[in-house]
Every structure is written in C-alpha cells, then in structure tokens.
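Protocol step 4 of 5: obtain the predicted structure for the target chain.
Materials: sequence only (see below). No template structures provided, no constraints applied. The aim of this step is simply to have a reference model before the mutagenesis design in step 5. Sequence pasted as it appears in the construct record:
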Amino acid sequence: QVVDDLSDVAEACAFDSKNDEETHLRLLQRRALQKHADARAVSSSTEALKAAFLDSLYSSRRCDDGPGDLRDTDVCALERCQRCMGGGAELEYDEVKNYTTCTYHTSNASMPSTFCGESFGDGRANEERVAKCTCCYPNGHLSFSAADADGLGYTYCRSR
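Step 4 output (structure tokens):
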C-alpha cells in the first residue's frame, strides 16, 4: 500500500501543463479501482466467515424428525428442518412407516441461510424474527451472542 501511495505521489508530481487533466484522471481511476477491489475482498471474506460458521452450526444440530406427515400438519416443520440441515433440506414422508424425515440436500447461494428468526447481528428487536422463532418453537426466544460468527455476532432461536 505504501509503495502504491508513493507511486501515486510521484505521478501526481510529474504533471506537466499539457497532461495535467489526463494524469489526474488516471490517478483517480486507479484509486477507485483499488477501493472497489478492497471492498470486494472484505465482502468475500465476510461471506466466507458466515458460510464456515453456518457449516459448523448445522453439523452440531439434531433435526426434529417425527411420526406422521409433518409436511401438512406442522406449519414450521420445514423451517426447523432447514435450520437444522441448511437451505436445501427437505421434509420427506414415508407412508409405510408413517414418519417424516428431514433430509439433507445441497443448497445454492440463492437460498436463505438462516431460519427460525436466526440472523447475523442482533435481531432480537425484529418482530418478524421473533414471530418466526416462536413459530418454530412455541416457547422459543431469540438470544444474541456478540462473539459468535467470528465477531459478527449471531442471534439464535432457542427453545426454553
């Protein structure tokens, strides 16, 4: 970064009356491109942290499989399933066993990554998130941990 700043200074000092505007424009364009690249790197790094955190979270959860066809009788069963296994998870009903199982399927970037009101950052005051949490767990509540997700903070939906 220091070397780039020094070369910018050298270039700025090298103005001659004929090329002042052109040189100045190139300098501004270079700075804008560098700032854009820096912003993309930070965004990419944050997304990678979020993905790694969610992978760890999913691996430690147990899913709420159960008797009967939960696809029809439990409004938030799919939400709990996806909270457990990720956005690609689906509820599969076995008629012979009369049992519903949450089954893992890979998700893609367009699918949601948080469920049951959970979120990155402090989402405890968001009424929509509170409602989603209590739908998933009627006695549930949102709990925020500022240190989780590598310091981004994470709001969990916890069953009481």
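Step 4 remarks: The chain has five helices and six strands. The chain has a mean pLDDT of 78.
Proceed to step 5.
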